[in-house]
Design brief:
heterodimer; A: 307 residues; Uridine Diphospho-n-acetylenolpyruvylglucosamine Reductase, domain 3; Alpha-Beta Plaits; 15 strands; 24% strand; B: Vanillyl-alcohol Oxidase, Chain A, domain 3; 4 domains; 5-stranded antiparallel sheet; 17 helices
């Protein structure tokens, strides 16, 4: 385990779940508040975290187990989305988290914030793609929630409670994820049709439902070099399906094939403000926070909870 | 208890409270007849206001209770052992159905298949389709996070519930959602609630997503001379990245039970196993998917792959599958069924091992299950009055469960832990994890009155142990 001082701040860099558990127990006992850090892209999210030290997950990194034939993968929480994408691409698979933001972000942060993206409606939200989590709650308990199989109702669902809790219930250290096969045919089209066109929405809800379908403002289109296009649409499936879907889309307006890297720009440019800005603290939520992190050592203040 | 019964009668009327042992007989078990526990009292509210009043009366009396839908569960989860049974089947209204937004809001006692029937004129259906869908309720489905054959492609109950109004065990009424709404954040309290097996509260209403009917559906039946070959075909289809709407395996003993019953579906009686596979979606490209499924079956050694010619044949093929548990009633008076899930690449080896375990204990294992998810359902028909046979059946089931856990699997994919699988929880989860599950339960039900004694073994909860030690 590494402890470093950067400026006046203490940086803790555990390498295992057990080390994280030890640190959290020590922090809870001494009242040392921890800021959890993946790649550092979500820090604060509008509310200042009041922390005495930073707990970085950067040494918990890499693929732990990948069985392509099962379409599941286990990765350490500090693994970046880019690393996850590289590991699975070699087998024609992907974990379609594809959240708002870029691929420098970590798997742990994506699950902790439950950040979805333009593909979520069709390919799954974080809560639907995560099968299990290893994590350490604010009491320092090392929890192995869920499992690594694709269907599981054993016990109470700690995975769903921790996913999207912004690190205020537990520190995610490892994740078991569901993978999908990449579509055999995968085409991105820029469509010239008004951004509020009901025909495009009807297309997106119909049998040719695309992987993603995003309206663009004139500024967005200019920034993405898509000219007069006002929709970016990604079609995926087998060759015959994509050909038919493309035909149906072309009936709605002129279509131009676009570089699929346009989606990376869409994910950073069109990202909505983080949900943590407006957190709902009802009675059950307060009880949940108090039950799992009674000393409030984890990301204190991030969700606007009182100091 | 009489004071409580009087109070409940005042709320729901005399006709809807049962207290005599003879009247309570039918509530002694769910669809797993080997497990029986008698409730002390049963109450059946007929409106949401009555439901809330009943839960509040139970809270004032500090009375434990067990919610129950249609009693089709397969884990003993709805058994009320000497406590009050809260039956929800009278709350059966579809409150709203929005064909444009593709959602429906229903009371907990609405039967799963009724919702699909109501949505059908709009070209929509409710996707989770447990085999008991003609009887089971949406409230029960939410409590168990129920699955079904088509969950392979469409996802389980969790993926289809958008919002729920819940009566907490203390009588407070709360709205739970996924916490991922546009612009507003919150914990995924709804996700934590779904599948909590009646231990977190009672559903008063639930809003679910409705799914558009596919443009076209192709149903295939592939016939194999060994179970291993059928399992290998399943693993190959999944590994190839094909996502059928459903992929179900039935073995020879199951085929025999179905074909000898009124649910005879025309499965080949000399087959060692059949795979029932379905692909659906847009018509364009669908035949290519079906051809790919058929090719993998043939490559794995299938004798024959046939396609359902019309909706009637499709319905018949599915009826045999969905009524398979019922058909096994012909073989013996009792039935145990397990629900383990294993990594899909390991299906061929695991099915060999299950057969060997059955043979070693001299019991007859029938397999009928969601192969595409790796969700096994080994069934053993037996006579619970035969002590020797019962012992052998339970020993075989325990061994099968431990084998599935060792393979990296889980003990239940859709039926829930209930009472039936409690003994395996400590083999699957660490002490800290079980302790954290107790913490989660305490957030919703700090008095631990809702469905007591289920899901997590009491001895696994550190604080419960501590408080018991303090009392002693």
């Amino acid at each position: 385990m590494a402890r470093e001082r950067r400026g006046a701040r203490l940086m803790l860099r555990p390498a295992t779940t057990a080390e994280v558990a030890g640190l959290v127990r020590e922090s809870a006992a001494t009242g040392c508040a921890l800021r959890l850090r993946g790649a550092g892209t979500w820090l604060d999210a509008g509310h200042p975290v009041r922390a005495d030290a930073t707990l970085s997950l950067d040494r918990l990194r890499g693929v732990v187990q990948y069985r392509p034939d099962d379409l599941t993968i286990t990765v350490e929480a500090g693994t970046t989305l880019a690393e996850l994408d590289d590991a699975t691409r070699a087998h024609g698979q992907w974990c379609p988290l594809l959240p708002w933001g870029d691929d420098a972000g970590t798997v742990g942060a994506t699950l902790a914030t439950a950040t979805a993206g333009p593909f979520a409606a069709r390919l799954g939200r974080p809560r639907e793609l995560v099968l299990g989590l290893d994590c350490v709650d604010g009491r320092g308990r090392a929890i192995a929630a869920g499992g690594r199989v694709v269907k599981n109702v054993a016990g109470f669902d700690l995975v769903r409670a921790v996913t999207g809790s912004w690190g205020t219930l537990a520190v995610i250290t490892r994740a078991h994820l569901r993978l999908r096969a990449r579509p055999a045919a995968d085409v991105t089209l820029a469509l010239e049709a008004p951004p509020d066109a009901p025909t495009v929405e009807a297309f997106a809800r119909g049998p040719y439902a695309p992987l993603a379908c995003v309206p663009l403002s004139a500024d967005d289109a200019a920034a993405l070099r898509l000219g007069d296009a006002r929709w970016l649409v990604r079609l995926g499936g087998n060759a015959a399906f994509v050909a038919a879907a493309r035909g149906a889309l072309e009936a709605l307006g002129p279509c131009t094939e676009a570089d699929p890297r346009a989606w990376d720009a869409v994910r950073t440019r069109l990202a909505p403000p983080p949900r943590a800005l407006h957190w709902r603290w009802d009675e059950l939520s307060r009880r949940l926070r108090a039950a799992f992190d009674p000393s409030r050592v984890l990301n204190r203040g991030l969700l606007g909870d009182p100091a | 208890m009489t004071a409580l019964a009087a109070e409940l009668r005042r709320i729901v009327g005399d006709a809807h409270v049962l207290a005599r042992a003879t009247e309570l007989l039918v509530y002694r078990s769910d669809a797993l007849p080997g497990l029986q526990r008698a409730p002390a009292l049963a109450v059946f509210p007929g409106t949401r206001d009555e439901l809330v009043a009943v839960v509040r009366a139970l809270a004032r009396a500090q009375a434990p209770f067990v919610a129950r839908g249609a009693g089709t569960g397969l884990s003993g989860g709805a058994l009320a052992d000497g406590v009050t049974l809260l039956g929800l089947h009278r709350l059966k209204r579809i409150l709203a159905l929005d064909p444009v937004g593709r959602t429906a809001t229903v009371e907990p006692g609405v039967v799963n298949a009724w919702l699909t029937r109501a949505a059908a004129p709009h070209g929509l259906h409710y996707a989770p389709d447990p085999s008991s869908q003609s009887a089971c309720t949406i409230g029960g489905n939410v409590a168990e996070n129920a699955g079904g054959p088509h969950c392979l492609k469409y996802g389980v109950t969790l993926d289809h519930v958008l919002r729920a109004t819940v009566v907490l065990p203390d009588g407070e009424v709360v709205t739970l959602d996924r916490g991922d709404g546009d612009g507003e954040g919150g914990y995924d309290l709804l996700g934590a609630f779904i599948g909590s097996e009646g231990c977190f509260g009672v559903v008063a209403d639930v809003t679910v997503r409705l799914t558009p009917d596919p443009e076209r559906t192709i149903t295939l039946l592939a016939d194999f001379t060994s179970v291993r070959a059928a399992a290998a075909a399943t693993s190959a289809i999944i590994a190839a990245g094909i996502l059928p709407a459903a992929l179900e395996l039935m073995d020879g003993p199951t085929i025999e039970a179905v074909e000898s019953s009124i649910y005879a579906a025309g499965y080949p009686r000399d087959a060692a196993a059949v795979l029932l596979a379905e692909v659906d979606g847009a018509a364009a490209g669908l035949e290519d998917d079906a051809a790919a499924v058929a090719a993998h079956c043939r490559a794995a050694g299938s004798r024959d792959v046939r396609m359902a010619r019309d909706p009637a044949e499709r319905a018949r093929l599915w009826q045999g599958r969905k009524k398979a548990f019922g058909a096994m009633g012909r073989l013996a008076p009792h039935l145990v069924v397990q629900d383990a899930v294993v990594p899909r690449s390991q299906l061929p080896d695991l099915l060999d091992d299950i057969a060997a375990i059955g043979a070693r204990h001299g019991v007859r294992v029938c397999n009928v299950f969601h192969a595409g998810d790796g969700n096994l359902h080994p069934n053993i028909p037996y006579d619970a009055h035969d002590a020797d046979e019962s012992a052998r059946v339970h020993a075989a089931m325990g061994e099968i469960m431990r084998r599935c856990i060792a393979a990296g699997g889980t003990i239940t994919g859709e039926h829930g832990v209930g009472l039936d699988k409690l003994p395996y929880m400590e083999a699957l989860f660490t002490g800290d994890t079980l302790d954290a599950m107790c913490t989660l339960r305490d957030v919703f039900d700090p008095e631990r009155r809702a469905n007591p004694g289920k899901v997590v073994p009491v001895r696994a909860c550190r604080e419960w142990r501590a408080s018991a030690a303090a009392r002693a």
